[in-house]
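Handoff note, outgoing to incoming analyst
You'll be picking up this chain. Sequence as last confirmed:
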Amino acid sequence: MVYNRQIVLVLLFLLVGTAAPAYGQISEKAEQFDNGKMWTFEYAPRAYFEETYDFEANERWFENARLGTLRIPGCTASFVSSYGLVLTNHHCSRAAITGVSEDGEDLLEDGFYAKSIAEERPIPNMYADQLVAIEDVTEEIFAATDSAQTDAERVQFREDAIAAVQARAQSNSGLDEDEVVVEVVPLYHGGRYSAYTFKRYTDLRMVLAPEMKIGYFGGDEDNFTFPRYTLDITFMRIYEEGEPFETEDYFVWSLEGAKYEEPVFVIGNPGTTSRLETVSQLELRRDVTDKNLLAFLHSRIEALESLSGTTLMQNEEMQIRNSLFSLKNARKAYQGQLDALHDPTIIARRKDAEKLFAQSISGDEDLSETYGEVIAEMAGVQDEIRALASAHGAFFALTSQTYSSALLRRAMLAYQYVQRQESGGGNPQLEELKEQIEAIPDQSEELGIALLAARLEDFRMYYGSDHSLVMSVLNGNEPLASARELFNSSALSTQESTRQFLEGAMSVENDNALIVVEEIMSEYQDFQSAYLGLQAQQDAIASTIGRARFEVFGTSIPPDATFSLRISDGFVRGYSYNGTMASPFTSYYGMYDHYYSYGPESDWDLPERWLEPIRSFDRSVPLNFSSTNDITGGNSGSPVINRDLELVGLIFDGNIESLSGSYIYLPEMHRSVSVDARGILEALDEIYQANRIVLELSKDELRQAEVEN
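Most recent structure output, in case you need it:
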């Protein structure tokens, strides 16, 4: 499952426990596409596509590809009919599937199919964004930031300039205020800037989702592997004014599918890559930041798994299950990325690329005068951040709402409330803080204690038992015992007692949790002040390096991923692994082979309706395929199209070798993994009897209700 590499939210992916990729087989010398093929639409590679793939990639072709693709929270989706039918992954839709489940239903496990338009269920808090306009605003942003005298001024001037661009683009969009979103996207780490105007659709309804067993077939064991046998799909529909949304910009469903060695194109929203970072930045990731992130994921998985068999609140068990999916996916993804950073071949290749870049700068007098010291300056900042390694680990994701103790979050906000109250802060700010505190939902006692104990253990692990902060917050106890004592003694443990506490005299001395947070905040604020200052310096230098790269290479290399729309080219192709060759296609035969090999209750178990399919179900139909397209987190749900803009597949994963793709693209090893359009249609027709959807996909006919075969 493709993962979204944005740190704390951990919106994310999955990897398998298998042998580490043999990166030593690749060259240590930099090559043409090391920075990947995640091309932007404002710098569309028309000439390259036409020369390489022998077709006319004109402006209208790229426009159709852009408008047919959507961005949804954490993932990608696409229009697959003129009646607003949308296709994405099952793993991108788990929250949506849970959200449309009614009392007594478990649609995540059992699946869902609306047999009529009237039965398509509205999805709470769901939206989809369509990129409708792009404007290069680089010079406008540079004009503001280049006048800054300090890093703080540069940040403020950039924010002001971005706000002005957004206001202008919103006004010029021709869209209603509630349906337009404008983002100013930094490309090349701030070397260029584009304003993206999105049309936002907010009425999405669930049409069809398979059972978890088939949408997540192979479970954690199979993720980030190939061959695969997974039907990782979900269909939704966009509505406007209560009716299915009609559009001309959709991908026609290919009945023929893709062929071996055929060129294919992936349009999606890759989350984050670090291919243009300097070697010193990558080494800091290896030794500090990504290492600390991985430790955080380990500890939160252990905390949630420790709750098995305990008493939880209503819906908490399902929430924990989904959280564990995400956390385990992210842990395996980051482990693979960290392994890549420890591989000397990859680091050697990145060093070679950096050497060539530096030579290009030094060989030009003007470039050398402007940019000659930027790589060394970046290395100096990385050394300063490295000195904060212990604090970085101790406070990682401290203020996040994800996988954190509700008590600790309430206490941190309450501490701010006290500080503002004592300093004479204004009532609007106090009221806002009070509302934030009261809005934090309750956690069961066991969940709240487990997550608080994990945080206290973070302090001990990174600072050591003899550190003053650790001795103060643990008070001589183990983290679990201290967490239990805090939870049971604090008035901030529940929403109800918190309301009562807020109505009384608010002071630090009134609550044990506030006393602990006072100790934490003193250390945390010192760390934040230093760390944020260094990050501002890093961002400024990265922007300068980005400008230098653009001057040297232009658009011949794509910028790092930014969860903005990209198009990636590649071929349907297998690859060598484990001493053999993986065919690019798998079929339903392979899926059933895994079921009969591993049996019920395994990760390769099948839903009941799949155990004895009707005789016309063709197990030889292709189910998944691999290709050389360049993807990363956020590409989940991306359409895979051919030269005729026909949909031939749906991205849902990559192989284990592709994890190094955060830092370098290796087409000889990296593979994207997709659900085959033919396999999807076969399942809809023969397993789910979703005939009205089959007609819509194959003939673009909208039927109000289910029809007979």
